[in-house]
Amino acid sequence: MVVKSERMNVFRTYHLKTHAFLILYSLFILLPFVWIGITSLKTQEQIYADPFALPIPAHPEVWLDAWIKGRFSEYITNSFIAVFATLLTVALVASMAGYGLGRYKSKLGPTLLKIFLVGIFTPNQITIIPLYIELKQLSLLQGGPVTYLALVLVYSAFRIPFATYLMAAFFSTLPRSVEESARMDGLSSFSIFRRVMLPLSLPALMTISVFNFIMTWNDYLFAATIINDPAYMTLPVGMQFSILGFYTTYYNTAAAGAIISAIPSIIFYLFFQKYMLRGIGGLGLVRA
Length: 288
What we know:
Strand content: under 5%
Structural class: mainly alpha
CATH class: Mainly Alpha
Distance between the termini: 32 Å
Number of domains: 1
Largest sheet: none
CATH superfamily: MetI-like
Number of helices: 14
CATH topology: MetI-like fold
Radius of gyration: 24 Å
């Protein structure tokens, strides 16, 4: 009994220390967001007087000013078009490629997966110059609606390797009996994929969609390289163009703009969080 009591005390102490560390770490992570929120409710004069003081009085009209001055309705629309077109393209290509690599064994399978790994670990920065030259030769840098096509092609090319690798890993974990039963019912290979395997892979698709949404929504490097028409700027580039400026920075509107730009990613993640956890669990990365 004494040994059991000592073990319980050690267990409780460990849990208390763990929870205390997690609480402190969470506060450390949340502190910058709190400070940005406080800054977004101040005037420029209040910020220069004391950047860490509470916003007394608060000025919520800064958010409206940031929305109007930053042309957020226009830039958010552009971002949504580019992001959701990318999500659909990546989901379509990665699901089919992952199904082939995960369910059908061939000599080329391991080699193809290694090629996808090269795409995953290739830094985006080293591709900017050749990518710009190639897009220019394809006449995709002329501005106008073709800007969306250029963005979707580039985003999809850099998101598909990771998505395909994840989908292949997920499909490889599904039992063969499901596929064999569908084949005995007379379904073709494509029908099995479309009517059986694709619905089962929904958690994995939601997982890659969450990752791709966040990375694509927050992308600045490719958008700043490709977009040369202000009417088609995405949100990160548009904020730099309209709010931050080149000579004067309005810190309050910039802070409000940063919070507004983060809200869609947070909502998207919270909405699909349960599907994301199921997808990761299906890969064996977490235990039920």
